[in-house]
């Protein structure tokens, strides 16, 4: 079989089995783009070298699922936050635990290291942000202001500010020296998943579940750009190292944006699913995604990606693009002033305070098991010895040939296991007509075809009612079909536009949400949780105020509204018992239900 030498722009590099149970978090090392840390429901943190088949190091000590991980800038340390609210910090070079930090009351869902290295910030489902001094082993400040889970944290390049993104649809900017909030950005209409500072200029980017990426001027504190046209939730964003453009990762799609004016330079379809993190190395973008206990690496060749010039036709109206003010594309916007003091790495033992007996017990229960000594020495040990030869540079990952033999590699921690899928030559196979081929494909899938046909008809009926503009009637018709899949499809649409929610909808949908939360299907549970979260956020203040208001004098105009609020309150009380029981579960859903339990706490008062 002949092979072509044509290269491709993006490809899947590798897939591994990262944990014995579901993966719950992961992060790429941004400095090298070659190091990956994964956290799992097995309470472990595993360290991997990109493209290497086996785990380098396995870090233990957590007693609940690891919900958030972060490397420091030198990639010599890694911190992991658990569902129980504890933080553990490891020294990867010394292969040992450095710190165990306690203080959060709920799951930790975001982490970041300060540029100077000795401080780190953590954000929790309980909506609080804590700043920790690693040397003193304690919390030095707590920031309050968000009303829901803090999804992402990022320190500014000069280390003076901290940006936080939350499920409450806001981005907040905190002054670390003054210890207070500087400003709040509220233009997003759904949960904000990620924030990142521009590497040089006073700019901040944020990506949200509302399918937009927004850019904020940090001198005037206003929005200077907003992308449209994202095909799904924005999960990752990354500035190009020179700050010339912004990459946005959503489901199976990579977009390249410019600003002032807003423009989209390029759009690439990459089959990475729900991408979780991005890094750049050797002018290649390294991306990672996970599903269940598998983690996949993807590579995008940035040499073949448009990062300037004309916009993509049809996405944004073509406008004349002003010439840059200098050859380097400098702007009038202010740049960060990097601290001049060097941040030397001190001996961790010298930094530590005298540990208590409880601290010693926690540290004894934590360990760093080196599972691949050769890779460990190659990556971490060179920093500890004097090298008389120039350091070995990493090479770009070679692109596969467009029609080369396909090879599916599935690796497990420990000995490498390779599963090779052979390519079968089609010579000698009889040619089938379209109808015959379709009949062959459908063999054994009759039940599924009947189910999908029925679902299509039901959705068509709901769509017809929806076209009349009556959301309540269309939702009622979906409920009357006794098919939860139809209800889930409708709720997924309404959840994308929270303004569609009305109190009338709540009385119809809350009993359905109770069924969704107890479903065996993960997507049903996720949709039910999102809908319940939006209902509590939008209507609990109204329900509470209506039920606690004194009775009106004369004609009771508010009677109908009060009856609706009473019905919603009763249904929410029933749901609170379901949420309480599910919050005791271990895993990703347990964390979500714990967040809902916090939101539903006022129901008991």
TrEMBL record:
It comes from the Eukaryota. Keywords: Cell cycle, Cell division, Cytoplasm, Cytoskeleton, Microtubule, Mitosis, Repeat, WD repeat. PROSITE patterns: WD_REPEATS_1, WD_REPEATS_2, WD_REPEATS_REGION. Residues 346-367 have a biased composition (Basic and acidic residues). GO terms for biological process: cell division; microtubule depolymerization; microtubule severing. One of its GO terms (molecular function) is microtubule binding. One of its GO terms (cellular component) is cytoplasm. The keyword Amino-acid biosynthesis does not apply. Residues 319-374, 381-400 are annotated as: Disordered. Belongs to the WD repeat KATNB1 family. Interacts with KATNA1. This interaction enhances the microtubule binding and severing activity of KATNA1 and also targets this activity to the centrosome. Participates in a complex which severs microtubules in an ATP-dependent manner. May act to target the enzymatic subunit of this complex to sites of action such as the centrosome. Microtubule severing may promote rapid reorganization of cellular microtubule arrays and the release of microtubules from the centrosome following nucleation. This is Katanin p80 WD40 repeat-containing subunit B1. It comes from Cyprinus carpio.
């Amino acid at each position: 079989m002949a092979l072509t030498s044509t290269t491709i722009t993006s490809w899947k590099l590798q897939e591994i089995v990262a944990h014995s149970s579901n993966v719950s978090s992961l992060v790429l090392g941004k400095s090298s783009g070659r190091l990956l840390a994964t956290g799992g429901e097995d309470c472990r943190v595993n360290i991997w070298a990109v493209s290497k088949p086996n785990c380098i190091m396995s870090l233990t000590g957590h007693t609940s699922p690891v919900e958030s991980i972060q490397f420091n800038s030198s990639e010599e340390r890694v911190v992991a936050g658990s569902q129980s609210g504890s933080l553990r910090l490891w020294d990867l070079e010394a292969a040992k635990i450095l710190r165990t930090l306690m203080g959060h009351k709920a799951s930790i869902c975001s982490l970041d290291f300060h540029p100077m290295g000795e401080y780190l910030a953590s954000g929790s489902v309980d909506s609080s942000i804590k700043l920790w001094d690693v040397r003193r082993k304690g919390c030095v400040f707590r920031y309050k202001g968000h009303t829901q889970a803090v999804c992402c944290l990022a320190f500014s390049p000069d280390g003076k500010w901290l940006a936080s993104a939350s499920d409450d649809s806001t981005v907040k900017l905190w002054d670390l020296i003054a210890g207070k909030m500087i400003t709040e950005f509220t233009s997003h209409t759904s949960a904000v998943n990620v924030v990142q500072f521009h590497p040089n200029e006073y700019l901040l980017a944020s990506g949200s579940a509302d399918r937009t990426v927004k850019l904020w001027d940090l001198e005037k504190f206003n929005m200077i750009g907003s992308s449209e046209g994202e095909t799904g939730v924005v999960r990752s964003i990354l500035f190009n190292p020179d700050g010339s453009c912004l990459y946005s990762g959503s489901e199976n799609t990579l977009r390249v944006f410019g600003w002032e004016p807003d423009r989209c330079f390029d759009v690439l379809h990459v089959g990475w699913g729900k991408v979780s993190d991005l890094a750049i190395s050797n002018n290649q973008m390294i991306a990672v995604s996970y599903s269940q206990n598998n983690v996949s690496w993807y590579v995008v060749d940035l040499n073949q990606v448009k990062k300037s010039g004309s916009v993509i036709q049809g996405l944004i109206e073509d406008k004349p693009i002003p010439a840059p003010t200098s050859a380097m594309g400098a702007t009038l916007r202010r740049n960060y002033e990097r601290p001049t003091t060097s941040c030397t790495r001190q001996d961790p033992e010298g930094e530590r305070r005298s540990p208590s007996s409880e601290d010693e017990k926690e540290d004894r229960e934590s360990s760093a098991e080196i599972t691949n000594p050769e890779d460990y020495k190659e990556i971490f040990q060179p920093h500890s010895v004097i090298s008389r030869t120039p350091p070995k540079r990493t090479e770009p990952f070679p692109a596969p040939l467009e029609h080369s033999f396909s090879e599916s590699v599935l690796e497990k921690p420990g000995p490498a296991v390779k599963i090779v899928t052979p390519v079968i030559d089609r010579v000698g196979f009889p040619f089938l007509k379209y109808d015959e081929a379709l009949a062959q494909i459908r063999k054994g899938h009759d039940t599924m075809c009947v189910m999908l046909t029925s679902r299509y008809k039901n959705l068509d009926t709901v769509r017809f009612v929806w076209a009349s503009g009556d959301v309540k009637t269309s939702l009622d018709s979906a409920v009357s079909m006794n098919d939860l899949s139809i209800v889930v499809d409708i709720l997924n649409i309404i959840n994308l536009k929270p303004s569609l929610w009305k109190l009338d909808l709540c009385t119809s949908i809350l009993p359905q949400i109770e069924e969704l939360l107890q479903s065996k299907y993960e997507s049903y549970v996720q949709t039910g949780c999102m809908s319940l979260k939006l209902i509590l956020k939008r209507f609990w203040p109204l329900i509470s105020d209506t039920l606690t208001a004194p009775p009106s004098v004369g004609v009771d105009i508010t009677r109908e509204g009060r009856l609706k609020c009473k019905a919603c309150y009763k249904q929410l009380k029933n749901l609170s018992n379901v949420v309480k029981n599910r919050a005791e579960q271990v895993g990703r859903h347990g964390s979500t239900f714990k967040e809902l339990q916090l939101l539903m706490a006022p129901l008991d008062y």
